[in-house]
Amino acid sequence: MANQFTKDSLPRRQQAKKNGELTYEGYKTCIKCGGSERYTSNGNCVKCEREKGLAKLLDDELMAPYRTKEKQQKNRERRRQTIRENSKRYSQTEKGKISSSISSSNRRARVLSQIPETADFEKIKEIYAECRKISKETGIPHEVDHIIPIAKGGLHHQDNLQIITQKENRSKGASL
Q1: Counting C-beta atoms within 10 Å of the first and last residue's C-beta, which end of the chain has fewer, N or C?
Q2: Residue 109 pLDDT > 80, yes or no?
């Protein structure tokens, strides 16, 4: 079998490996998709490899062993433990920026634990994009607000989100 790489493509891959790059631009295009971006580790087409990976992730039967309730609970608990450790570590240091990063990570963990299986991530992304668009067009800062706050048991679901001004959202707090 003939060498699959041209004389010039090997130096590109070797140079990309030396530079610590994950991908490089190959001389030949992929037979399947026509892309020329390749992984330095194995020379495979980036686009085709990503499609294969996504196909595996979307295969419920294949991913069932990895998506058990026990594993989800374990991951949730691991995130909470990390947050607790960070809170203890930084509680005796200066407040300011460090405490705000801790409270941000606490909020992210709460939101992650409040995402139901019926949540449509595309719709949620659209709501956040619409919020940015409104803020840009009007010049007034807007935020995406949970109608029933996460702190009060509300869910991070598209039906529980609304766009309101930043001032209104900050004055609202976690009250119902």
Answers
A1: N
A2: no
Q: What is the pLDDT of residues 147-176, one digit of tens each?
A: 888 878 888 888 989 999 998 888 886 655
CB 149 within 8 A of CB 128: no
What residue ranges do the domains of the chain occupy?
9-61, 68-113, 118-176
What is the C-alpha separation between 172 and 16, in angstroms, rounded?
A: 52
Dihedral pair phi/psi, residue 116, rounded to 5°: -80, 165
What's the CA gap between 103 and 86, in Å, rounded? 10
Mind listing the pLDDT tens digit for each residue in 46-88? Answer: 999 999 988 988 888 888 888 888 888 888 898 888 887 776 6
At which residue do the structure tokens 């003939």 appear? 2
Residue 5: beta bridge partners?
A: none
- pLDDT of 98: 52
